[in-house]
Write a structure and sequence with these properties.
This is ABC transporter substrate-binding protein. With 427 residues, the protein is α/β, with parallel strands linked by helices. The chain has helices spanning 2-23, 53-63, 78-90, 106-111, 131-136, 169-176, 201-213, 231-246, 258-266, 279-283, 324-334, 337-347, 360-365, 369-377, 388-403, 409-424, and strands at residues 41-45, 69-73, 98-102, 138-139, 142-143, 146-151, 154-158, 191-194, 270-275, 294-297, 300-301, 304-305, 311-317. It is globular. It binds alpha-D-glucopyranose. Residues 78, 102-104, 151, 201-202, 205, 258, 276, 311-313 line the site of alpha-D-glucopyranose.
Length: 427
């Protein structure tokens, strides 16, 4: 079903791209729809697993009684969030004023004219923000969204079972030998390792991390030409493929998105986990069996630390919003110290303000902040193209087949390369 939808989107995109330049820009005539408009706004965003939204709504609404924000929470699954946004943009829904844009959706939303460029009267000051986050919100040299939360992958490990964090895959696996259940988490011992291996966006994240760690490159330096079929990529992908085959990754992880992974680690079923920083707040939460028994470290790789895939979310203003001036103020508000600090202290979300990573008080409380900053600064972006839905589909489908053992690593990469090529060619 997804494949059919992607094809339709890609087909329509060719025509839209040409028009995009004058679609959302208030100065290019005709389409100023709400650029100066003020009034109540709706902020559409993924499910608040971190408990930070009530603060944001209360703070904003107290200061803006005539321009209140209503928050619409979507699912916590990246693919479902995207489908919801695509549907509402296609319907030109003026009810979605401000939307959360995953870093990988920026190009598509911008190219289609669904979110307004933050230029001219919509200018946003980005000087205090982490450069990687600004880049993730930029398409073709123009800023289209306000960095809201960054994301870098981290390794979570059990300090009651391991002396220090492994820096290589070999060390990680060495720690598991004879101490973990193989192949399944239903045994009485924890399983060794899990990340996000269900067939959705998170699989692309995890596959890309494995591939990049061994020197593979999904696309070339232009950000879109397929280069994934290489021996380097095969070495990386094999870490995951062998994981399922040899049992150091439990088979249940084929159904894991972020939430299932964190729940498994939280209930003591995993020795090592790859996840985003938001997991810290959940692992320290009241139902956690591992509070005080886990550490956070950079991701391991084949020979020393690997690199994370760059994650994160930015806020865009819908081109169909009637209240874009209010929406812009809301974007400025979410960059504030108040909001960014609350996101970190309550939800352990990665701030976009550079200064927070060296704030002594925060670093004392969140000792992993320097590692997180490094993870974000060295993170590898996913391909930047308006045809990203087709590209990620190519990565997910073929990786998943290899992880399930339905195809070999070599064949999966060959098929992935062909599918990325046809996706970036426009359909
Ligand atoms: C996180 C990341 C996002 C990524 C998603 C995949 O939310 O911030 O960039 O696409 O995970 O599930």
């Amino acid at each position: 079903m997804r494949a059919r939808k992607v094809a339709a989107v890609a087909g329509a995109l060719g025509a839209t791209l040409v028009l995009a330049g004058c679609g959302a820009d208030g100065d290019s005539g005709g389409s100023t729809r709400g650029a100066d408009g003020r009034g109540p706004i709706t902020f559409v965003t993924g499910k608040d697993n971190s408990g930070v939204l009530p603060f944001i709504a209360d703070e904003w609404n107290r200061a803006h009684p005539d321009e209140k924000v209503t928050i619409k929470q979507q699912s916590d699954q990246a693919d479902q969030q995207l489908a919801d946004l695509e549907q509402h943009f296609q319907a030109k829904d003026p009810g979605y004023d401000v939307v959360t844009v995953d870093v990988v959706w920026t190009a598509e939303f911008a190219a289609r004219g669904w979110i307004v460029p933050l230029t001219g009267r919509h200018t946003l000051d980005t000087r205090r923000l982490l450069p990687a986050t600004v880049k993730s919100a930029t398409y073709n040299g123009t800023l289209y969204a306000a960095p809201y939360g960054s994301d870098g992958g981290l390794l979570y490990y059990r300090t009651d079972m391991v002396d220090s964090a492994p820096t290589t895959w070999k060390e990680l696996l060495g720690n598991c030998e004879g101490r973990t259940a193989e192949g399944t988490i239903t045994g009485d011992r924890p399983a060794c390792y899990a990340g996000q291996f269900a067939k959705y966006e998170g699989l692309t994240v995890n596959a890309a991390e494995a591939i990049n760690a061994t020197g593979g490159k999904i696309v070339g330096s232009d950000g879109r030409t397929a280069t994934v079929d290489s021996p380097e990529s095969a070495a990386g992908l094999d870490f995951l493929v062998k994981g399922f085959k040899d049992g150091y990754i439990p088979k249940e992880a084929l159904g894991f998105q972020e939430t299932q992974t964190v729940n498994a680690f939280r209930s003591g079923q995993l020795m090592f986990m790859r996840n985003w920083p938001y997991a810290v707040a959940i692992l320290d939460g009241k139902d956690s069996k591992v509070a005080g028994k886990y550490g956070v470290a950079p991701l391991p790789g084949p020979a020393g630390h690997g690199a994370s895939t760059l994650g994160g979310h930015n806020l865009g203003i819908s081109a169909y919003s009637e209240h874009q001036a209010t929406a812009l103020d809301f974007l400025r508000f979410i960059e504030s110290d108040t909001v960014q600090r609350n996101n970190l202290t309550v939800g352990t979300l990665a701030p976009v303000l550079t200064s927070m990573y060296s704030d002594p008080k925060l670093v004392k409380k969140f000792t992993y902040l320097p590692d997180l900053l490094k993870s974000i600064e060295t993170a590898v972006p996913r391909p930047i193209t308006p045809f990203y839905p087709g590209v990620t589909e190519a990565i997910e489908t073929n990786t998943y087949a290899a992880l399930q053992g339905r195809t070999t690593t070599a064949q999966a990469l060959k098929d992935m390369q062909a599918a990325i090529k046809s996706a970036t060619a426009g359909g």
